[in-house]
Amino acid sequence: MRYAEFGACHRNEPSGSLHGIMRTRAFEQDDAHVFCREQDVESEVACFIALLDEVYRELGFPDYEVALATRPALRAGDDASWDWSEAKLGDAARRCGLAPQINPGEGAFYGPKLEFALRDRLGRSWQCGTVQLDSVLPERLEASYIAPDGSRATPLMIHHAIFGSLGRMIAILLEHHGGALPFWLSPDQVAVAPIDLARAGGVWRGRQGSVRGCRDPGC
Questions:
Q1: Which residues of 23-58 are buried (b: 16+ CB within 10 A; e: fewer)?
Q2: Residue ranges of the alpha helices (H) in 30-95?
Q3: Pair 90, 56: CB distance under 8 Å
Q4: Distances in Å between the alpha carbon of 117 and those of 143, 168, 185?
Q5: What span, in angstroms and rounded, lies between the C-alpha atoms of 188 and 133?
Q6: How many CA atoms lie less than 13 Å away from 96 in the CB half-sphere?
Q7: pTM, whole model, 2 decimals?
Q8: pLDDT reading at 214 higher than 70
């Protein structure tokens, strides 16, 4: 079962860490959650990574950094669950041709995660995408499904986002392309603006087929 939304997030970031629209105390995120069986985890994570890779390449970021964030000191769940979850995420990443570095202790309290970071024009690394494996919250939510043998089983939850903070992604895109966004993302590449309405007709007579005009005086 897959859910997705553009949700509002709030974090009490220290004032010294705030940075334009790249790091804020309130932001929107392309949030998604998948409830699935244990045997589906690796394929679901691999599908997400393939989608993320396609999106990043289309946006001009073929080279991104990947890290596997492992169990923190304060965490829920037992070590056996963490061992399994960390192994599954690592296997899914390698299945997609990735070699994640290990970030010890940087996982969420409920499970490990793969973190995807992009570098801006100044060489700064920004975490954007993430996929997290969670065996804690489904149990607390009392989520369940009927297994093939008729018993009631608890699913796993996968949290994932491609962009993370939409504001951060927009800022990185603008910096990366120097404001000259790809044509498919910003199709209005040229604008001819007359100085008054009396000269608007000349703009229309002079425009070429590749330049789209606007007849609305408010344009």
A1: bbeebebbbbbbbbeeeebbebbbebbeebbeebee
A2: 41-58, 79-95
A3: no
A4: 32, 11, 21
A5: 41
A6: 22
A7: 0.79
A8: no
